Predict the 3D structure of the following.
Amino acid sequence: MSLTFSCMQRSQFKGEKDTLALFDWEDDKINAIGWLDSKKEALMKNMAQKEGFKGKPGELLVHYPENAQPSCRLVIVGIGKKKEADLKHLRLATAKAVRAALKQSDTLWIGIPDWPERAAHAEALAQVITEAAMLAQYKYLKHKTDTEETKQDRTLKNVILVAEKPGDLPRIEAGVKKGKAAGEAANLVRDLVNEPPSMKRPLTLAKLAKTFATRQLKVRVYNKSELERMGMHALLGVNRGSDHEPAFVHLVYKPSGTPKKRIGLVGKGITFDSGGLNIKVGTGMTTMKLDMAGGATVFAVLKACEKLNLACEVQGFVPLTENMPGGDAYKPGDVVKALNGKTIEILNTDAEGRVILADALAFAAKQDLDAIIDLATLTGAVLVALGDQITGLMSNNDRVATDFENAAKAAGEKVWRLPLDKDYKERYKSKVADIANVSFQGGTPGTIGAGLFLQEFVDNKPWVHLDIAGTAWADNDSTMGPSGGTGAMVRTLLEYLTN
Ligand code: BES
Ligand code: ZN
Ligand code: ZN
């Protein structure tokens, strides 16, 4: 099912049975598509006029073969106004082209659009096209048996990027390589998030992470007795209601040269969140296999580091457990001691993410790192505040936060910074422990409150917290992929680590 990518020059085009996708600027009216002979150009112009095709971002015009050049199935996709030349439009247009092609063809040829300052953008264009193609053709059919649905399922096998100028080919190849690594990483996150919860127990995921190890990527798994010895009692506390042992995974990617920067990535790894004794009600539990999306993102990004030959050192930290209401489950009123010695009073067992992250962040803060970034499906409140398209960002460091915001912009993902206002902190005071895991005081913001709680465990190291509870999961199918896990923030993280 894997999609292969290659690059060619236009003279090498021979796609009689394939689909050819060409991009059209909104102001162009099919004029500048040098691919078409005059007959076909006239035909397409006529068709565009009849159908009211304007070249708006993602707008499609599909034509079937006739005796004209090029003779193949032709898909023209709008990429918006040339003076706005926005990669996000190219991303959407590519995804549309892939969706239009995969119903009919095994091979899709994509003409690299004539972008302003084309040569300077060749790599980015190829990267965006490759990523979008991989995301758009993703499906999770692993557990479908041989039904009509799987029989009718068609996948694209090859994507060929076609360069206008042969001189662009090396940069296009570099872009394809980057795009493939990012697309594969995002689709791996999707696979892991979509996996049923009883098939991805903590030790199953830890074992999977071990298989990612290479000469440059070391993977160490701490088991339950090691966690006890180390003092990760917050993670152990959450684990008590589950019949399945917890694990903590530490991954270290070392570049070939001496790294200038060391970055730590921490990911929430709750393989199922029932809420524990504060059990979730009604539909609140149905999607809770998603609660390891942060951890899956850390695994996938670490796996991609070597493929991208990243120059920085990257460490990953993933605490893994179920949150279940078993007989020995941790209870409201219980106190657990985190790795850094701070005690936490549990007032709600459903605020478990911040509890396991307390240990993981404290562990990361002890390593020699320039910045720590955590990803967690942490609060339902972030979905209320920012919806399913914008990730909540919180930070104790303006520089790292700004760098990360810029990386998100470049990757075409949306983040919005929320203030970690100190005045809310005292609401997490506990009467019996150092800190409580929730505040019962009215007016306390859920997402910021969780961020303030986490901040207590980073030892003042430069840190960014990403609440992906809204963005890690899609309730509905979209052009960029089916409902389920989305792979949000993978591309942004790779962009951030690359620069
Ligand atoms: N895993 C949930 C957060 C979540 C909710 C993720 C919806 C994705 C979609 C988290 O562990 C949780 O239950 N948070 C509680 C915190 C509350 C008890 C303070 C919440 O948001 O309701
Ligand atoms: Zn919860
Ligand atoms: Zn949770």
